[in-house]
Amino acid sequence: MNLESPESSEQAFTHKVEFELNGSPERHRVPTSATVLDLLRNSCGKQGVRASCERSVCGACTVLVDDLPVAACSTFAFDVDGTRVETVEGLAAQDGTLSAQQQAFRECGGFQCGFCTSGMLMLTTGLLRQNPQPDRDLIREWISSNTCRCTGYEMILESVERAAELASDKQQDQDFE
Asked: Are 119 and 110 in contact (CB under 8 A)?
């Protein structure tokens, strides 16, 4: 009795994953055990997604999946099949113009070593999509899932508040056009 699958043994332990990444379609075959972090860094070249704790506690690997923050290090790659994934590389405009979030972090010094910054930017993006005018308590709650060892968080809080202002100004400008 032949128990071999007609598929190759390699395909039996992989998944085909199709998703949108920063506005562009992606298609990959990944091992069953691959995480979103593995997929984004190794197959898609998105080095802004940081590998740090790999236990879903530091937030450095935060990406948005269908507008919700996700720890890429502890989410299986096959879970993003059919979704929209956003990384820090997708925040700036095609011409290099910084997003409101990036501009705010730059203006307010919401980074020092920069290791947590991509995760903080993605959390800020997700927060402002759900609540364009968050108060300080809500901002603190959202960014608490990302560990920063350098800033003491005050400049990050100010950066998120400034990002909300800039995004609101941008929206008002678009409404007048």
From this structure: no
